[in-house]
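Service request form, structural biology core

Requester: graduate student, group of Dr. S.
Request type: structure prediction, single chain
Budget code: on file
Notes: please return the result as structure tokens.

Sequence provided:
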Amino acid sequence: MYIDDYKRWLSADLEDPALTDELRKIEGQDNEIKERFAVALKFGTAGLRGILGAGSNRMNIYVVRQATQGLANWVKTQGGSQLVAISYDSRINSDVFARNAACVLAANGIRVRIYDALMPVPALSFATRYYKANAGIMITASHNPAKYNGYKAYGPDGCQMTDDAAAVVYAEIQKTDILTGAKMMAFEDGIAQGLIEYVGEDCKEALYSAIEACAVRPGICKTAGLKLVYSPLNGSGLVPVTRVLHDIGIDDITIVPEQQYPDGNFPTCPYPNPEIFEALRLGLELAEKTGADLMLATDPDADRVGIAIRCPDGSYELVSGNEVGVLLLDYICQGRIEKGTMPKRPVAVKSLVSTPLADIVAADYGVEMRNVLTGFKWIGDQIAKLEAAGEVDRFILGFEESYGYLAGPYVRDKDAIIGSMLICEMAAYYRSIGSSIKARLEAIYAKYGRYLNKVNSFEFPGLSGMDKMAGIMASLREKPPVEIGGYKVTKITDYQNTAQTGLPAANVLVYNLEGGATVIVRPSGTEPKIKTYFTTLGKTLAEAEAQYQSPSVTALPEGEPRGCTSSHSMLTREMERICTDTLHSLFYDHPLKRLAFLHIVHYSIIWIQPSGASRRPIWMPVRVS
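Core staff response, request fulfilled:
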């Protein structure tokens, strides 16, 4: 079947010659053909995301057209404005895909508002709401490596598409022939007929005004003298972020030159992700040279922002997404109470994998903290519920540990523009009272305890990746761990059990351990990864870190796994036996027999790394019931 699809593409007169060249190069290479044609990228609530290239399992103009025809079929059943908003980031072919989407919509008689230059996720969400559109399209793969691109679909509220709507769109996509099924109109014809229009300056200015209206202490930055280094990581954040920062009074902004302008190749970092140190390295070096107070970096679609703060000794410290979320919550609560702008019965929302410290801080300020499934659409859903009840002003903050923040109801997705603005405002305020972000963070820890959060991500590329991930999650359910790192599992919450959680079903497992630690395991919804989240609590950092003991790696001989040792502990023979049994059951037929183990002692997590290959590791608990 996939060979037939390949031959059809190869014989077709494709508009993109690069796709034809790629198809010719892989002729006779079954695995390469299979990777591209055996399956199709599946459209879900996060849209599409995949590697650029030829085939149904790659991102290209034909996959984009097919997806857009499916979306158009759904839009035509919705009534309303019969309009779709479109934006795009700096990734390879993002502008091409955006224009192709506009052409398909126009050919279906659906009006389009498309940005005339790259603009980030929050700008797309805002335009969708501003023009009362039926839907929005954002061409982006967020912070993935350069070889990826994606297609995010939004509903009329500016939030990522609901499950029900996405299912209808997916069904329509499946009815559409990938090469010939999408209607098309030339972009210039769409413009001439008034079906395609550019987003107006009025919309852009309204976005900036909405963001700046969310300031907690307006004007505080004008006299603070903040010195800032900023990197858009070659993405879409440069114009909107610097515009808002200048508006609030921050003029001393040094842009990282190598990362200033849009470049979908992301030449300075393989992962343009502000969660990763390598992406921030150039910004940190420049901050040290210039003596900046803060270093900010936004990802390519500018919905996440990472920061580094200058410490009293002149060094710079990276602040995690969990820490920034807690700092913003604390700052907003404190400031709005002080200014008399705190709403009655305030509400904050966070993902369930984000730090429980935020729950404690919220309770202390009398704020209702709502915990939702991972994915900012669930935070947007809570805002929508408040809006439907006429209580949207109750919403004060939403955040995820993965560096995504929103502090106003003007959009329904995370926004690095407002995140950057409030981080700078927070720094300016603490400076004005003789303090600092660092000092405030330490004060929060001193008051509530030291919460230590760690996240590991493990990739499973290729066609078999999803099956491997499903197998690991199934194994954890079939043989749940009774002990993790010497700590008894006191409670297991399976988020597939909606009766237990009261939330929509999700592939998430939460383990509560003796002593208050938690372990959360979930597959990523947008990437072929399993993520693990660990939280421990101590009175001090040393006490919290004591639960994380030094890992070590022990190479294994061909075939047989054996136990690991570290300077702090040694696996018991029982653990060796259980580990061996578990691995044999999972990998008996695995072609890569040589394995290496990394034992993270506190959590008894085994990191299984096929040696001699560039494959990413996976992990398994070593003790099961």
